[in-house]
What we know:
Bound molecules: heme C
CATH topology of one domain: Cytochrome Bc1 Complex, Chain D, domain 2
Strand content: 5-15%
Structural class: mainly alpha
Largest sheet: 3 strands, mixed
Helix content: 40-55%
CATH architecture of one domain: Orthogonal Bundle
Shape: rod-shaped
Order of helices and strands: HHHHHHHEEHHEH
Number of helices: 10
Distance between the termini: 162 Å
Amino acid sequence: MTKKNNNPENQNDPKKDELESKDAFRDEAESDESDVYNIHDQIVSREKGEPDEGFEPTPWWVWTISVLVLFAMGFYLGKYSGTFGTTAHEVEMPPRLADERVEREVRGDQLYAGLCQPCHGSDGMGAPGRYPPLVDSEWVIQDAETPARIVLFGVEGPMEVLGETYNEIMDPFEHRLDDKEIAAVVNYIRTSWGNDAPEIEPDRVAEIREEHEGRGRWRASELQALMDEE
Ligand code: HEC
């Protein structure tokens, strides 16, 4: 199979001509091929790359921080949300006054100054004709039960104190003072202004309170009868 030679310079040597022709063809082909690659490369580099953001795996530290933040928020809500109840923002109530009174030291002098002094006076001398004196009064110093009875349930009607007769009213303290307080104030009047009588225990006050529960104000004669019994 012979190939027709188109090169006029190599017309005399067909073999050489054929070889050169082959080389030229290959060069041409190669240069064509490299051109294609070249052009393709240029096109590819001009185009934007495939977007890959958003498909990357999440870095480990993002997970770590997220988990820590979730835990922290959960802890905070658990501790401070108050289960999202309506009482979550209510201010804590102060302890009841009554409870406070029990814990506070009970002082007879203070009770006297607040509750008895307006009538019986800071010196325990009372007021002539209206409020009888407590100093040296038999009702106060003879036995401890009598003043406790008077303070608990009050007293009304004619009452002789140190030779003078009063006919007034003293209201009961049974609902205003507890046993401890009544003992304290009774002990105060029995040991003040020169009075010097033994003290009474709150337990004894409780017994008297229970014994006469529900009664009204004493009459002096009733108190006198009880004093004579003892
Ligand atoms: C509102 C005035 C008033 C107050 C307050 C008052 N008293 Fe009296 N108290 C009287 C009167 C009045 C009498 C005489 C009642 C009568 O005439 O029957 C009396 C009588 C007494 C008596 C017997 C009489 C005597 O003088 O010994 C004692 C004890 C007594 N009071 C103690 C107290 C004590 C303790 C308190 C306080 C816890 C107190 N009183 C609070 C008005 C008061």
